[in-house]
């Protein structure tokens, strides 16, 4: 194991080591140390502070916060975003990313996953009894909710991590009183410690990242060898036209320029060809 018995800083406020520590320990022998830094300064799901920069920039900054605070040369951080699926437009999805940084070896590695396993949902309601249907849809109370006025002028009026009907009722009346249109926004709390469904997706991604870090580059022996891009253009059996089907998988190193390509198939049927099957 390349990282056996080494320490790695996980920057999180939301107990993500529950999902990340086990695969990194089993696959890499790496021990995860949580660093509870103020990651809210980089943006919040609930919108009080908009995320600035790309997801990669936020990931890297978040990871470096924990590494600097702990003094460790290995770091990991997680970032998620939620919204309509890019191709299945009417379904919500969870886009998760993880970054691993090794300062001594001077490289970083990112992995991501797009999952339909999410309870991401929000609704504006006027009456308490409208909450029941929404609560069932987002798996309340095992999954927390966030409540705020629908017309959100005073951003200090927000209640997070609601996991009981009593808490909901108190927050609902405060938010309704503060809302000019008397509507209240209820939404699934997407913070990992309040969302077991999201925590499970992070765990799956952590396993994927740890597996990739366990594979060494055939040339320089650096961890992280894996798939770096796909090459389309698989030829049609009837007319040899290059289709949109994947022709080759390109594997590469995270640092050196060594790559290997692997042919996915010899060809594809005319049903996948824009010439034979326009």
Topology of this protein?
Layout: E1 7-11, H1 17-28, E2 31-35, H2 55-70, E3 74-84, E4 92-102, E5 107-115, E6 122-125, H3 131-137, E7 145-149, E8 159-162, H4 165-178, E9 184-188, H5 196-213, E10 226-232, E11 246-252, E12 259-263
Parallel strand pairs: 1-2, 1-3
Antiparallel strand pairs: 3-4, 4-5, 6-9, 7-8, 7-9, 10-11, 11-12
Helix pairs in contact: 1-5
Q: What do you see in this structure?
A:
The longest helix has 18 residues. Helix content is 24%, strand content 28%. The strands form 3 sheets. A 5-stranded mixed beta sheet has the order 2-1-3-4-5, with helices on both faces. Helix 1 packs parallel to helix 5. The chain has 3 domains: 132 residues, Maf protein (Alpha-Beta Complex); 67 residues, 2-Layer Sandwich (Dna Ligase, domain 1), CATH 3.30.1490.20; 46 residues, no CATH class. By secondary structure, it is of the alpha+beta class. The chain contains 5 helices and 12 strands. A hairpin with a 7-residue loop joins strand 3 and strand 4.
